What we know:
elongated, 43% strand
Amino acid sequence: MKKDFEKRVELPKGATASVEKNFLKFSFGGHVGKRLFNSSEMEVVVDGNYVVVRAKKNRKASVALINAFISHVKNICAG
Length: 79
C-alpha cells in the first residue's frame, strides 16, 4: 500500500492563511490573495504557520496537481 502524498509550505512571518470552501485565502502586508482549489483529488489544510496539501490518491496526476498548487502558494507568498 502506497503512502499518501503530502507537501508543506511555511508561511512567511506576518502572513496568515485560511481555508474557506474551495479557496485558500492569504493575508500578508495589507494584501489579500485567494487561490481556488477545485479538485476532489487534494485536500488543503492550514496547520499553524504551514499550508498542508495532501493527495487523496497517490497517483502521478495527483502529485503533479499538488506540486503546481504548491508553486502557486509560494508565488502568492513571495508577492
